[in-house]
Design a protein that fits this description.
Blueprint: E1 12-13, E2 22-23, E3 27-31, H1 35-40, E4 51-55, E5 60-61, E6 76-78, E7 80-86, H2 96-99, E8 103-110, E9 113-114, H3 115-123, H4 129-132, E10 138-139, E11 144-145, E12 153-158, E13 161-167, H5 175-185, E14 193-195, E15 203-204, E16 210-215, E17 218-224
């Protein structure tokens, strides 16, 4: 087979303690998965219909690289999230009891959002793609193999100031529940990432801001907006 042009490199994540990298397939995200964040955005939580959306795999910013401030916005917001990585293909829909067996590892990431564009889209009942799925909209740390600690808290500091922090147990949909729901809508594949929702405290980022994020006392992600 010959190509009309050279294919793009496969996006990937570093794996803590490993020389091999984790190749990416898709990025799924869930919205309104912390009740306090839903309230601060003027929204309600719907346990019957989880709110899923996607980012392109090549939106990741890895290895603590600088994050470029995106075009077409004057209101870039941070949303820190636990991220789980799928390590094997699902054979169709999975049950809640089996869902976490798909997980290879975990880390934290930022679901960067062009909030002004999201507000315009909401006002017109349009999709959020331009607000969520732009280039470099998913800074993410190296993966830790295994399951995330159930009693941990995710946190974000910007310029040494704590902006967001919440226990994973406060999620409206558990990790297993959201994976089971996703598997009914998409075929989950090895290489998929799932951003599991952000707690309250989302706010603006500016050029020159430095951020650090992690779980409990472990730093898993750092970077700078440029």
């Amino acid at each position: 087979m010959s190509w009309l042009f050279e294919p793009a490199a496969t996006p990937s994540l570093a794996v803590h303690g490993e020389s091999s990298r984790f190749p990416l397939h898709r990025i799924y995200c869930i919205g309104r998965n912390y009740a306090a964040h839903a309230r601060e955005m003027g929204a309600s939580v719907d346990r019957e219909h989880p709110l899923f959306f996607c980012k392109p795999a090549d939106a990741v910013v890895t290895d603590d690289a600088d994050v470029p401030y995106p075009s077409a916005t004057h209101d870039l917001h941070h949303e820190v999230e636990l991220v789980v990585a799928i390590g094997r293909d699902a054979e169709g829909p999975v049950e809640v009891e089996q869902a976490t067996s798909l997980i290879y590892g975990y880390t934290v990431g930022l679901d960067l959002t062009r909030r002004d564009l999201q507000g315009l889209a909401k006002a017109k009942s349009h999709p959020w793609d331009v607000a969520k799925a732009f280039d470099a909209s998913a800074p993410i740390g190296a993966l830790r193999p295994g399951l995330p600690p159930a009693d941990a808290a995710v946190w974000l500091r910007v310029n040494d100031s704590l902006r967001q922090q919440a226990a994973l147990r406060d999620m409206v949909w558990s990790i297993a529940e959201m994976l089971a729901e996703l598997s009914r809508l998409f075929r989950l594949r090895a290489g998929d990432l799932v951003f599991t929702g952000t707690p309250e405290g989302v706010a603006a980022l500016h050029r020159g801001d430095r951020f650090v994020a992690g779980l409990d006392g472990e730093e898993l992600l750092s970077g700078r907006i440029v």
